[in-house]
């Protein structure tokens, strides 16, 4: 695993190339973003960076103000705290919906095969649903199932009025056509937001998508909750994946940012990144974005979660983002830590999409 | 009409703001791009710029080489010549298809109401179809038709195997829901390429759209035919309309350009435009892009067609692009004139989309 070679910012040279990010590489779905390569204990508890943050919540504006740390100049954007707040809000809404119209939102997950990591993600989703009062449904099919059998389950969930969101856990066994299967999910229940019709509506002015993909939605939600202006700002998205970079760019543009997308074929990416007021890094390259690439005062949203060797860690590795945090926090005005930044937002947005879907289905305001 | 205020480059000040481009403003459909605001004689014949160009066609690569004019440093990208060549190619393919499988591609146009400009566009489409051997179908409905009546015609054409492309002439009467009507066109016959599903597929890597919108497709085709590299280049698209700017940006990105989109909310657009190797201007502001905004050697594709007052002209106006041509041609390495650049490409791409649709429907290679 190439990304294990870099143990600190300095060893990730400025010449690091941007590599294409594949769906299966880092962020294959709405809840797996921060534990994609691991099965085991959750690394979130080790993030000491959060201790430098004091969170004030303004109930009217949802804007969180962070104090400055004595150690760094950047505000730390605490995704874990924001995600917890969102989950509390969802819990309250689910409860209100149940009380007022007797409907409980439902999320169905389809798991094919025995991959341990996939089983972990599915378990985490179930737990997250339980924690906010969303009903979870699960279909487990053996590895050698036919595409037809999977489609039958999707069709069943499409018809089931108690299911408001459907997720097919990826990757699917190699004998299946992923596109066929994902396209079979009803657009009204596509809580992942990956259906081309949802992406098309996201791209078009005046056409609202039914769902926005969870991770990019989480990035923008962090900007909103921290009161960071987007309109008129220069934004650079690093990475153009279907699940993070591309929809993040479309979202920023829909909020009137001037957006540039940097990718594996971009020459001298640092020159463009340096112009950005807002950087969203989603490329899966540890510590690629150096402090010197960042305009003083820029806001940095780091979607990457990369394991790097760390002999001092009990596990032998630690997780770092696409941005060299130690350098960036001295230049940026606000930054998401890794872990504890974008990661926790992804599953919160999945729950949010499921709730929205149920509300829409029952015309509940 | 604000755009009539500017009569030359110098009077279009550098402080000109980018305005949002509405669908009905300039480029409402695949064939109307250069005569949007006029009903009357076609202004194409007056373009003296084409006389400075020598066109060589290489049958193997389709690359056209242009000679340099003594007067300017930029190659003139002759859209009229390229469009004629494409129409010849389509004519040959339509003929081959008819000979080999007895199928003739068909394009249906639905016109509601009595707008003279719309009637002109529909007539032009019919003529263009006739010239390449595509069968044209036409439905004319009175202004006070119901949405249901229009939908009935769309449904009929959706079912009709001799129709391979359907265009609804816009604007529709104000009592109709444009989105409902456009969404009713079968995705397999959406030769305009505006269906959100086609736009979504255009945005997503690994998902090919069935059709690409005609004007942006024409811009990219011009780059291809003139052998202009896109991969790895900095591209700036000016304007983010659903019909030109946004899909043009997606197309450039799919060809590995590093793309920035400049729009009405962009601060200091000239700073970003100046970085571009390729500029696509589609904002509908006469002479907005000045020579000083252009990097020496950049390629300029000017989609704008704006009428400006001209007392010397018999009609009292002349047409100019979004780019100040006189200034830009001294800086750019290649540039499209207005008229005679992108305009003629749009209808050629409509014919091309119709042919492709017929080939796909009949699995004809």
Automatic annotation (TrEMBL), chains A, B:
Signal peptide start-end: none
InterPro entries: Aminoacid_DH-like_N_sf (IPR046346), NAD(P)-bd_dom_sf (IPR036291), THF_DH/CycHdrlase (IPR000672), THF_DH/CycHdrlase_cat_dom (IPR020630), THF_DH/CycHdrlase_CS (IPR020867), THF_DH/CycHdrlase_NAD-bd_dom (IPR020631)
Entry GO CC: cytosol
Top-level division of the source organism's lineage: Eukaryota
Pfam family, one: THF_DHG_CYH
Function text: Catalyzes the oxidation of 5,10-methylenetetrahydrofolate to 5,10-methenyltetrahydrofolate and then the hydrolysis of 5,10-methenyltetrahydrofolate to 10-formyltetrahydrofolate.
Recorded family membership: Belongs to the tetrahydrofolate dehydrogenase/cyclohydrolase family.
Assembly mode: Homodimer.
Name recorded for this polypeptide: Methenyltetrahydrofolate cyclohydrolase
